[in-house]
Amino acid sequence: NAGVTQTPKFRVLKTGQSMTLLCAQDMNHEYMYWYRQDPGMGLRLIHYSVGEGTTAKGEVPDGYNVSRLKKQNFLLGLESAAPSQTSVYFCASRTPGGSYGYTFGSGTRLTVV
Amino acid sequence: DAKTTQPTSMDCAEGRAANLPCNHSTISGNEYVYWYRQIHSQGPQYIIHGLKNNETNEMASLIITEDRKSSTLILPHATLRDTAVYYCIVRAKEGTDKLIFGTGTRLQVFP
Known about the structure:
The structure holds 2 protein chains of 2 kinds. By secondary structure, chain A is mainly β. Chain A has strands at 4-7, 10-13, 19-25, 31-37, 43-51, 54-57, 65-67, 73-78, 87-94, 103-104, 108-112. In chain A, a hairpin with a 5-residue loop joins strand 4 (31-37) and strand 5 (43-51). The mean pLDDT of chain A is 92. By secondary structure, chain B is mainly beta. Helix content of chain B is 0%, strand content 47%. Chain B is built from no helices and 9 strands. Chain B has strands spanning 9-13, 18-23, 31-38, 45-50, 55-56, 61-64, 70-75, 84-92, 105-110. The model of chain B has no long low-confidence stretch (mean pLDDT 90). Chain A binds chain B through residues 4, 31, 33, 35, 40-45, 48, 50, 56, 58-59, 88, 90, 92, 96-97, 99-107, 109, and chain B through 34, 36, 41-46, 49, 87, 93-94, 96, 98-104.
């Protein structure tokens, strides 16, 4: 049981490049989330999904797109990366009403130069 | 979701109890108090949650005041590995509400 797995762990992008971050969970969780964390700050919600085929915007959605084609996967896309998107990205999942809260991945450290 | 207020940082000697306070004066009746921690650059880790009764698990205890406007997370015997940022969050347990993080309390456990 791997929990929540994020790939890649590290990435350096040039401004304007695109990339997709993958989040996979093997706990059959309905809800999945993408957060970003900048230095010295708490996590901020980018997008989330309450089920396969559904997505919704969080606090800071601009510049990102997401897709949830399969229940176990939640993809975060950057179409045209900007230096302001340099951050650590965390994926999380949970089950509705779950007693143990959210399960987080170990993060993806993205640098845009 | 209600906002929370936590001290920016705290110190605790190894082996002693660490008591981390949190104010959530605007909490509503259906909102739970959740605690998470983030060790270094890892993903946040769930610790405990409660509604109005005190809760205890293998990691910590959670004391919620009777008026529910504040709570305290207690690590009974802090170790160096408990050095982390601790987040107090209030949200409804059901529904699709998001987990909104503040800046948390940075706990430093020293030898």
